Structure formats: C-alpha cells, structure tokens
Amino acid sequence: MKQILKDLINGSPFELAARKLLPKPRYMNAIEFFGVDVIFDVGANSGQFALSTLLNGFVGDVISFEPTSAIYKRLEKNSQKFSNWQIHERSAIGERCGDTTINIAGNAAASSSILPMGTTHRDVAPKANFVGSESVVLITLDSVFNSYTKENSKCFLKIDVQGYEDQVLRGASESIKKIKAAKLECSVVSLYEGDKTFEYYFDFFKKNGFELFDLERGLSNPNTGQLLQFDALFVRK
Questions:
Q1: Considering only CA atoms, which of 89, 96, 127 is closest in space to residue 114?
Q2: 171 and 142 in contact (C-beta within 8 Å)?
Q3: How many angstroms from the chain centroid is the CA of residue 70?
Q4: Is 119 exposed, middle or buried (0-12, 13-18, 19+ CB in 10 A)?
Q5: 3 state SS of 132
Q6: Confidence tier at 8 by pLDDT (50, 70, 90)
Q7: Are the CB atoms for 9 and 85 separated by under 8 Å?
Q8: Stated pTM of the model
C-alpha cells in the first residue's frame, strides 16, 4: 500500500496500474454519501490522505496544512498534478494565532508534534523519535476557514496532529458548526505529554452534535499487541 502511494506521488511509470490496485478507503464512502465538497486536511505530511481522496474520484476542493518545512516542500510538489488541491502557506493549526516550535520526528516527520513525545511512543516506535525542531507560524482554523468555503459548503475535517487535536478544535469553535464530518487520530493511552485520549474526543463531538460513524485500527504495541491509536470518523446528526 505504501509503495503504491509512493509510486503515485513520484509519478512512476506504473502509475496507471497502481491506481487500479489502490483500495478505496471506507471514509470515501462517507465523503460521497454526505456530498462533501471541501476537505480540510490538517496535518497533511506529504499528502497521503489528500491523495487517497483525489485518486478515488473526489472532485471538490482539498486544502492541506503542513507545519514542517522539508515535508511542506514535498507536499507542494505532490499537489501540482491536481488543480483542486490547494496547499496553505506553511503553518501549524492550533488554539491561537502566533508562533510556536514543532518537534521534527525521524520517520519522515510523520510523528512530528508541538507537544513533547511520551515514553510509550518512544518505546514502541523508536524510529519516530524527535531529531530536531523548528519555528513555525501558528494559526487557528477559524482564521482561514471562510476563505476556503461558501455558505452552502459541505465540509470534511481531517486532523492528524500527533496529540495536538484538542488545540486544533479549540481554535475551530466557529468552524466546527459548519463541519459535516470529521476524522481524527485518537489515542487509547497518552503518547504525547499533555495530550488527551479518545474519551475526551468522543464526548467533545457528541456535545457538538456529532455521532460516531466509523473506526479504523492504527498504531499498536508490536510486543504486546495493545492498540495505542485508532482513527475515528464522526458525522453530524
């Protein structure tokens, strides 16, 4: 699966064959069923999520946000094949507008976070340990949301920010009212210092008029088999 996505991103001559082999993710069914026409891709990395939607026929607008500089350049390059894929200027999404420092993870920045990494994460995924840090502009989703949407837009919010989900949502107090569905990575146990586990987010979305729609298994402890993370999809009732 990872090699297929890499071939597609890099423009491999096997691209057409790879497209046919790429399985359709379940969240695409929800995107299509609810008529989503704008996707906010918060924590885009090099564009894996955005690419999965576009290659499965999504014709609306995708707006990706990525805070780490090296991966941001790769994201910009990967988006060039798609006219409906927009890359916001390099920034992190959080609870306020200002500046912050992000820790860069060794696994192609996939586990990078504004929060310090916890012992459990370091132990189960040593290749993801931080290898540096850099400054980045911090903005709220509310500060840019309306510039990418219309009054009748049906919006999908994807959040993958390594423990910083609460801050993203606190900076989206107005935007969340216009979100039709949201997909975020939830932790079963704490993986970053100061993060919140899945119970908090289940309660948050319920209070904001959403219901749980789907779950996808994520990171687990390779030694014990314990589930550590999963992706949760919530849809507005």
A1: 96
A2: yes
A3: 17
A4: exposed
A5: strand
A6: low
A7: no
A8: 0.90
Give which of 15, 175, 29 is closest to 95, Cα–Cα: 175
> CATH assignment of 25-236, given 3.20.20.150, 2.70.98.10, 3.40.50.150, 2.20.25.90?
3.40.50.150
Give the model's confidence band at 13: pLDDT under 50 very low, under 70 low, under 90 confident, else very high: very low
Nearby residues of 222 by Cβ (< 8 Å), 6 or more positions away: 124
Domain ranges of the chain: 25-236
**Residue 187, token pair as written in the block:** 């932790």
For residues 83-106, one letter each, b for 16 or more C-beta atoms within 10 angstroms of the residue's C-beta and e for the rest, the string is ebbebbebbbbbbeeeebebbbbb
Number of helices (H), then strands (E), belonging to the chain: the values are: 8, 10
- For the chain, the 3-state helix, strand and coil shares in percent, each to the nearest 5, are 30, 30, 40
Apex 109 CA angle, 182 and 97, nearest 5: 60
Q: Would you state the pLDDT for residue 21?
A: 55
CA–CA separation, 58 and 31 (whole Å):
8
- Beta carbons within 8 Å of 171's beta carbon, 6+ residues apart: 93, 94, 95, 96, 139, 140, 141, 142, 143
What are the two backbone dihedrals, phi and then psi, of residue 206, each rounded to the nearest 5 degrees? -60, -45
